Amino acid sequence: MTPDHNDLWFLPLGGTGEIGMNLNLYGHDGRWLMVDCGVTFPRPGRIAADGSVHHPGEPPVQMADPAFIADRRDQLAGLVITHAHEDHIGAVPYLWPLLQCPVYTSRFTAEILRRKLAEFDLLHRVPIHVVDVGNRRMIGPFEVEWLALTHSIPDPNALMIRTGIGNIFHSGDWKLDDRPLVGHGYSKKTFTDLADEGVDAMVCDSTNATVPGHSVSEAALHHGLLKTVAAAKGRVVVTCFGSNIARLHTLAAIARETGRYMGLLGRSLINMSGAAKSAGLWDAADQLINPSHIGYLPRSEVLAVATGSQGEPRTALRRLASGNHPDFELEAGDTVIFSARAIPGNEEAIGALISSLQTLGVAVITAEDAELPIHASGHPAQEELALMYRWVRPSVAIPVHGEAEHMKTQGTIAKANGVPRTLVGRNGDLFMIRPVPGIRRQITETGRLGWDKQALVRVE
C-alpha cells in the first residue's frame, strides 16, 4: 500500500486510542514521513507486598510495532521528533535499526536523543539534523515547518506539514502557557497565519479534552510550592517528571528562598538537567549540590527532587520509601510532595508508594490535597482546544493522543468551533485527507513490541 501523488494520508501505529507510545505516519507521493517514536508503560499489573508492580511476562519497556513502515523503509523519508518526552522519543534507540532514516528535531531534544543513542552504541550511526523554530525542511515530498508551542518540557514543537496537494497541522503535545518560564513561548499569529494559508487537517493532542477551563501556567505554581516547602520542618523531597525543567527552575528558586540546598536524585533528572545545560536552558543561578552530601546536612536544609512520581520500581523515591537509597534515609517528620498527577494505569502503584511513605511517618502531600496549585498539566484543556480550532480553522479535525472518550470529546469541541468534519479512529486506521476525506478501518495490524534480554519481542 503506497500513496500516489494525489494522496495525502495519516496512519497512526501508536498513540491514537491510547496515551503513550506515539508513532505517526504521513503518506504522499510514494513516501512516508514518521512523526515521533515513543515508549509506554506496561499494562496494569499486580502490586507486590513491597509496593512494586509486577507484569508477568511483560517487558518493562514497550513501544508500537513499526512492522508496516519497517517493511517499507525504502519509502521512509525521515523521522521528526516533536519533543523529548519518553512517549515521543523513547523508542528511537530500539527501533532505529529497523528504520535507518535521518532524524530531525530541536536542540534540546537532540541532546536527550544523543544520550539515549550512546547507550546503544548508535550515536555515530544515526544522522541527527538539528532545527530551530521557524525552520522549514524538505523531507522527501514533505515541507516541514517547526512551530513554537508550550508544553511541560523545553522546546516542544508543532509542525506544519506542506505538500503540493494539501497541508496538515500536527500539534504534538501542547498547552497555551503565557509564562512557560523556560524555552520558547508561542504566538497566536503563528496559528492564525496558518488559517489564512489553509489547513486541510489538524491532528491534535486529546489528553485533557475532558477537562474544562484552561490549563494552569508553570509560573502559577511558585506560591503553592513555596508555601508547602516553607511549612515543612524536616527534609523535603519533591517528586515530579524529570523532563520538566521549568519545575526544577521553580524548585531551585524556592530552595534559595527557604534556605535549603537542592539535589537531584535519579538518573533521568540528572540527564535532563545536563541536557538543559548543554542546550543553554539552565539558569546559572540554579545551583545543585551533589546528592551524596544530602545525608550530612541538617534535615531542615534539604530539598531533594526525586524520580518516581508514577510509583515506578527502582526509582529514587521508591528506594527512599523502601529505606535502601544510598544517599540518605527518610525519617518521621520529613515531607514528600507529589508535584505530578497519575498517568492512567499507575494509580495503584502510586497508592502503594504513598502507603509505604506514610508507614515511615513521612507526611505526603499530593496535587489533589494541596490548597494551592503545585502541579500543572502540559496538555490543553477545553478552552485551549477551542481557541486553537478557532485560530487554525482546519477543514478536518483528527483527534489523537488520547483514549476513546478524550478523542470523542475533542471531536465535539472541534465541531462546536466551526470545523466542518471530524475523523475519529484508532491505531491502524488510514485517515485519507486527500483527495477525499475519510477513514479506511484497520488497514494494517498494530501492536506492541517489548525490549527483553537485549532483543525486541512481540507483546501479546
UniProtKB/TrEMBL annotation:
Keywords: Exonuclease, Hydrolase, Metal-binding, Nuclease, RNA-binding, Zinc. The keyword Kinase does not apply. It holds the Pfam family RNase_J_b_CASP. CDD domains: RNaseJ_MBL-fold. Residues 20-214 form the Metallo-beta-lactamase domain. PANTHER family: RIBONUCLEASE J (PTHR43694). This is MBL fold metallo-hydrolase. It comes from Marinobacter vulgaris.
